[in-house]
Amino acid sequence: MPISTKLKKFLDKNNVKYLTITHSRAFTAQEIAATMHCPGKELAKSVIVKVNGDYVMVVLPASDKIDFDEIKSALNADWVELASEEEFKGLFPECEVGAMPILGNIYGLPVIVSESILKDEDVYFNAGSHTEAIKMKTSDFKKLAKPRVEKLALSD
After folding, report:
1. Fewest CB atoms within 10 A around its CB: which of 27, 47, 72, 120?
2. DSSP-derived 3-state class of residue 96
3. Could you tell me where the DSSP H helices lie in 14-152?
């Protein structure tokens, strides 16, 4: 499956310079980073969580683990839990399950990003398939996604 049409149109419409990288089939963020010879801290992964019942996309480095207590505290939420793939797959109709791009806002989801993602000049992320990724300027990601920035992860 090629780069998500919705993602490509969004990036092109906003005149963002990006690079599409084809890689061997990989399913976890750490596998993708290794396949692309990219440090895990530079590859952003998207994790879908439910915050008080609403879906939210959390973006953090591939090398990090999500800290649910941090999210709960940052959002002043009563409860936060990981959404199952079965629950959220319909939100990303043209993406392979688990390969959603980090621009959740184009799919109607609020985006919360770990502050550590914004430290590097470039960000790499899934392009909607398990064989393609996007590289773009972190500043462009921040401008387009308009994410809420928080400390959300436990570093490995």
Report:
1. 27
2. coil
3. 29-35, 68-74, 85-88, 138-145
